[in-house]
Amino acid sequence: MALRTLPVTVGIGVGTGAEKVLASISAVSPGIRVELFARPGTIPAGAAAVTVREGEEPEERLVRALMSGEIDAAVRGTLPASTTLALLKRAAGVPYLIRIALLETGDGRRFLLAPVGVDEGWTVAEKVEMVERGRELAALVGLPPTVAVLSGGRAGDLGRHEQVDRSLAEAEEVARIAGATHGEILIEDAVGRFGMVLAPDGISGNLIFRTLVLLGGGHGHGAPVVNIGRTFVDTSRATPDYARAINLAASLAKRKKST
Fold first, then answer.
1. Please, what are the domains in the chain?
2. For the segment 19-61, what is each residue's pLDDT rounded down to a tens digit?
3. For strand 73-75 and strand 231-234, is the pairing parallel, antiparallel, or unpaired?
4. Which residue, among 153, 134, 158, has the nearest Cα to 144 in the 3D structure?
5. Nearest residue to 246 (alpha-carbon basis) of 69, 61, 14, 5
6. pLDDT tens figures, 216-246
7. pLDDT at residue 259 in the model
8. Rounded distance, CA 83 to CA 62, Å?
9. What confidence score (pLDDT) does residue 2 get?
10. Which pLDDT band, with edges at 50, 70 and 90, does 7 fall under?
11. Rounded to whole angstroms, what are the CA distances from 231 to 46, 64, 91, 104, 245?
12. Cα–Cα distance between 114 and 56 in angstroms, integer?
């Protein structure tokens, strides 16, 4: 059965910025049912031709609906990250969440990026797991499984600063263990050549995302959580629109339903 014939329902959380979420729905691909999870009064009556699930604690309701199978996929939307992701982690029974963002440059080059949370990717073990999970995600979104591990400088910069030296050594170690390529600091060469780019740490990864999407004319398609059994796409509340994240969530959910 073709993937497009499988029905899919995507829930998206609406906290602040309801207008931005509502405006995104019109750009969602045909055949996707969108349900909004919000507190009473957040969505103006008759504002959208979609199902609105109103109630207190929409973060908990969205996560519960996802984990129970009431919806096929979920997008965080404009719900707060701290409470929503904590609830998801608890419901999925995992010690931490691994998010990998699908980004697109202004000229149409797509690539995966991790880590994207400021508290993520601070150990070699974490980075190696991100590479492994990233290869799995790359296969689902049509990208090559190749990975460039970035560091804080070029190889020739060794000795210029102890933090640069540590970054270079760690990138080499991650690349060796994971069977990836040390791309040094040359992100401009890595994007378009590799399916995934691994930033030196969560802070730099978050800065890469914000610079590309919010300043550089690129696009964010959301960051799927890749170490749980359900399809959850995380988003930044600074994202201009959520249609791409909804479309990505639906695409991943369809592939899971077809297997």
1. 3-97+228-258 (3.40.50.10950), 101-215 (3.40.50.10750)
2. 889 889 888 988 899 999 999 988 877 666 678 999 999 999 9
3. parallel
4. 134
5. 14
6. 999 999 999 999 999 999 998 778 789 999 9
7. 61
8. 12
9. 44
10. confident
11. 28, 13, 13, 21, 11
12. 33
Question: In sequence order, which residues have a C-beta less than 8 Å from that of residue 145 and are 6 or more positions away?
Answer: 135, 138, 139, 195, 196
Kindly report the three-state secondary structure assignment for every residue of 177-204. Answer: HHCCEEEECCHHHHECCECEEECCCHHH
Strand partners, 12: 36, 75
Bridge-partner residues for 75, per DSSP? 12, 233
Q: How confident is the model at residue 46, as a pLDDT?
A: 67
8 Å CB contact between 229 and 91: no
CA distance 174 to 26: 42
Residues whose CB falls within 8 Å of the CB of residue 24, separated by 6 or more in sequence, listed in order = 241, 242, 243, 246
Other C-beta atoms closer than 10 Å to the C-beta of 222 total: 26
**Please, what is the Cα angle at 216 between 170 and 126, to 5 degrees?**
25
